[in-house]
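Whiteboard transcription, Tuesday session. T.W. wrote the structure tokens on the left side:
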């Protein structure tokens, strides 16, 4: 607040603000995440000739979200047992947007205290 000093107190004028004398309107834009990319699951597929899973005939890898058809050689070979092992999750990622700072913090001029000073009787130099 602009308060003039009296004529005989015009040597110096100071405006002081309390420590909490701030109007704080700072913030951030909303954070968002773009479309997820990558990620999925992997595993090993084991095919066995016998039901006890003792004699392996085929082994192949599986990975989502790709086509999961597996050719079996020789064609027409009977499958008695199967197992999926080595399951693993591979995390994806997304591009982050937003979060930019906005607003400002300024002195609250309505809480200012004004000090007006007399001209000194002597000056120390």
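and on the right, the sequence the group agreed on:
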């Amino acid at each position: 607040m602009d308060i003039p000093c009296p004529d005989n107190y015009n040597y110096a004028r100071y405006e002081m603000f309390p420590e909490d004398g701030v109007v704080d309107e700072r913030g951030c834009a909303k954070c968002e995440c773009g479309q997820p990319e990558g990620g999925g699951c992997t595993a090993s597929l084991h095919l066995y000739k016998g039901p006890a899973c003792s004699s392996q005939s085929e082994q192949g890898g599986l990975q989502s979200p790709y086509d999961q058809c597996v050719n079996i050689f020789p064609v027409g070979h009977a499958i008695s047992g199967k197992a999926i092992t080595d399951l693993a999750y591979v995390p994806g990622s997304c591009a982050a947007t937003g979060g930019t700072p906005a607003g400002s913090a300024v002195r609250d001029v309505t809480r200012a205290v004004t000090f007006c000073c007399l001209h000194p009787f002597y000056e120390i130099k």
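Someone added at the bottom: The mean pLDDT is 83.
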